[in-house]
Amino acid sequence: xxxxxxxxxxxxxxxxxxxxxxxxxxxxxxxxxxxxxxxxxxxxxxxxxxxxxxxxxxxxxxxxxxxxxxxxxxxx
Length: 76
Fold this sequence. Notes:
The chain contains two helices and six strands; from the N terminus they run βαββββαβ. It is of the alpha+beta class. It has one domain: Cytochrome b5-like heme/steroid binding domain (Flavocytochrome B2, Chain A, domain 1, Roll). The longest helix is centred in the first third of the chain and has 4 residues, at about 5-10. It starts with a strand and ends with a strand.
């Protein structure tokens, strides 16, 4: 089931208090909920519920990790 979320709506998916952990990259929203490295919605100072398009380009893995993640929708 694909969903469309605004940046404001995406903020509620922060991985805290039982919420799912979603991030947007280049307009696509990915589910990080079951990724151990994103426990509690945080990973190397980054927080779920945000558009991390610019941040991922600075990561050592770049966008190579995205193909392993479930896509949940689009950022609108």
